[in-house]
Amino acid sequence: MYPARIAPQLGIPVHRVQAVVDLLDAGATIPFISRYRKEATGSLDEVQVGDIQDLLKRLQDLDKRREAILQSIEEQGKLTPDLRKAIEAAGTMTELEDLYLPYRQKRKTRASVAIERGLEPLAKRIFAQKDREVNTLAASYITDDVPSVEDALQGARDIIAEWINEDKQARDRIRRHFEKGAVIASRLVKGKDEAAAKYRDYFEWSEKLANCPSHRLLAMRRGEEEGFLRVGIAPEEEDAIHDLNRIYLHYSGESSEQVKLAIKDGYKRLLEPSIETEFRNLSKEKADLEAIRVFAENLRQLLLSAPLGEKRVLGIDPGFRTGCKIVCLDASGMLLYNSVIYPHDPQRQVFESKEKIELLVEKYAIDAISIGNGTAGRETMDFLRQCGFKHRVDVFQVNEAGASIYSASEIAREEFPKEDLTVRGAVSIGRRLMDPLAELVKIDPKSIGVGQYQHDVNQSLLKGSLDRTVESCVNSVGINLNTASKHLLTYVSGLGPALAQNIVQYRTENGPFKKRSELKKVARLGDKAFEQAAGFLRIRGGANPLDNTAVHPERYGWCSKWPKIWAVRCRI
Q1: CA distance 33 to 37
Q2: CA–CA dist 197, 140 (Å, integer)
Q3: pTM of this prediction?
Q4: 3-state secondary structure of 485
Q5: Are 240 and 267 in contact (CB under 8 A)?
Q6: DSSP H helical ranges for 435-514
Q7: Are 510 and 7 in contact (CB under 8 A)?
């Protein structure tokens, strides 16, 4: 059932969608399906497999909501065969909610109060637009709760306004007006001129919603949430009301005039705010998806930056007043030494700092120096150019975003329980040069500085997209089973935090894996997990060439197909 609904939306043959759905139901991961089940899926890539998974979940959620709505209306005794047919045919959540709107349990409204006062028959007579003397008609409905003719007419109009608001035809028509001509406008909240200075561009701003780029919409929404801006979305009011009049005004006369008033009130008080909320959510979702797409692409480029490899590295976390934190790492990234130098103002101990760097480079046979690109990064690069080394040392500047987050994290405390936060941050900067992927998976992707407005977009969607991107990167290059940390192993297809910890524990107790089949000895790692994970793991330097072939050996060389390296390289 689902594959037949998914296939036309994605332009993929039904039998291929069916194969993906069957594999997903069997517990297969996206990387595994796209890499090792090409014969079943027709070589669908991981993006297409991910799209199928996302759409499958949306359709499942839609059907769950459909069942809940049918049950609710049936319990009310109002489920007719035609209504059931319409609900079962609804293809979107919006259609479903429109059909359910008249039957939804409501809080007290002006219309419900008027119905309680017995004015529904009057509303039906006026809505039919066949009575000319509405005042005479309304007079017969005067009671203690409805003391005057005007009160009776007002109550009838309230009921008619709610009918129009709940009519699927009216809602669809107003949606079309929003789709074609909705304008998003932002205005400064009175008295907030100085506090809202950073939103000055949006003090008096308006443009068609369809043309508003995601970054601008997110900026306006942030200004609104902070209380500096008022943001509204609406089409041309006169055109929208005129369209509703064409639907509901059938005759001329006093009854029709009352309906006309009800239409205007219903649009301004109920329909327009309701559809505006819908389009605010839709436009926000669209902006979120675009922003998240950019975040994910930036993260992919960052994670897949070419690694320097197993070299001895000196990492520097630069700074002015507090000095430059330096660490020496061996070829596997283990900390050998840490200290602080003060080559910049206010201390300006240039000679002492130069002497110390030269000594450390010689003592620990340093191959490369990694410098964070934050405060004093450029000045530290200039300082290192003054140093004279006895052998070639390459100097790189790397993106240090998230290093402070890592240094205070539980992962860092576990790795370096006795070291200061500043030392942990410098280690992260050094390791990022050696293997960006292995180091950056330890940090929340949102903290790596991959885009703007990361705190404004849907956090669940952002986390899902970035986690999928990390998983894709890890599995696209493969990892060394004997050196990978548990944090890196967590993202391998078929594993997860618990199995990753068990693998590391087994490795610690029994020594390095000699072949991948030994994974089956790891606690709780069954045949299914092994099938999913084995193809993405490699063992370097083993005796069996079939067991130890690198899945992606180009990862450890300078390959022209790799994304442009993030590090700015210069030689001394």
Answers
A1: 5
A2: 60
A3: 0.80
A4: coil
A5: yes
A6: 436-440, 459-477, 486-489, 497-510
A7: no
Read off the amino acid at residue 143: T
Helix axes 46-75, 14-25, angle to 10 degrees: 80
Q: Which residue has the tokens 């500085």?
A: 449
Structure tokens at 489: 């192993």
How far apart CA 476 and CA 379 sit, in angstroms, is: 37
- Check residue 450 and give its pLDDT: 67
CA distance 301 to 565: 8
Q: Which of 284, 275, 262, 264 is nearest to 215 (CA)?
A: 284
Reported as a single tens digit per residue, the pLDDT across 268-310 is 999 999 999 999 999 999 999 999 998 999 999 988 888 998 8
CA distance 12 to 53: 13
Any bridge partners for residue 234, and if so which?
183
Angle, CA 484 vertex, CA 504 and CA 420 arms, to 5°: 90
| CA dihedral (169, 173, 179, 184) positive or negative | negative
Six token digits for residue 172: 């669809």
8 Å CB contact between 384 and 361: no
- Read off the tokens for 155: 């109550």
Burial of residue 569 (number of CB atoms within 10 Å: 0-12, 13-18, 19+)? exposed
Q: What is the DSSP string of 231-290?
A: EEEE--HHHHHHHHHHHH--S-SHHHHHHHHHHHHHIIIIIHHHHHHHHHHHHHHHHHHH
Residue 396 pLDDT more than 50?
yes
CA distances from 378 to 33, 316, 340, 399, 554 (A): 45, 12, 18, 12, 32
The domains located in the chain, with CATH, are: 2-103 (1.10.10.650), 112-298 (1.10.3500.10), 313-452 (3.30.420.140), 463-571 (1.10.150.310)
Give the residue from 540, 545, 530 showing the smallest Cα distance to 32.
530
- Determine the Cα angle at 494 with ends 493 and 498, to 5°: 115
CA dist list (Å): 74 to 79, 80, 86, 95, 410: 5, 9, 14, 18, 52
Question: For residues 401 and 428, is the Cβ–Cβ distance under 8 A?
Answer: no
Query: Which residues contact residue 156 at a Cβ distance below 8 angstroms, ignoring those fewer than 6 apart?
Result: 114, 119, 122, 123, 126, 138, 258, 262
Helix 46-75 and helix 93-100, axial crossing angle in degrees, nearest 10:
10
**Which token pair is 282?**
């839709």
Residues 300/469, Cβ–Cβ less than 8 Å:
yes
Instruction: List phi, psi (to 5°) of 40.
Output: -85, -35
The alpha carbon torsion through 493, 494, 496, 499 (nearest 10 deg) reads -130
Q: What pLDDT digit, counting tens, does each position of 329-384 carry?
A: 999 899 999 999 999 999 999 999 999 999 999 999 999 999 999 999 999 999 99
Instruction: Dig out the tokens for 203 from the structure.
Output: 């003090």
- DSSP class of 93: H
Token match 């009575």: residue?
Answer: 131
**Does residue 157 come out as left (phi exceeding 0), alpha (psi in the -120 to 50 range) or beta?**
alpha
- Nearest-angstrom CA–CA distance, 25 and 10: 19
Contact 29, 493 (CB under 8 A): yes
The answer to whether 171 and 273 have CB atoms below 8 angstroms apart is no
Give the strand pairing for 313-317 and 368-372: parallel
**8 Å CB contact between 122 and 142:** no
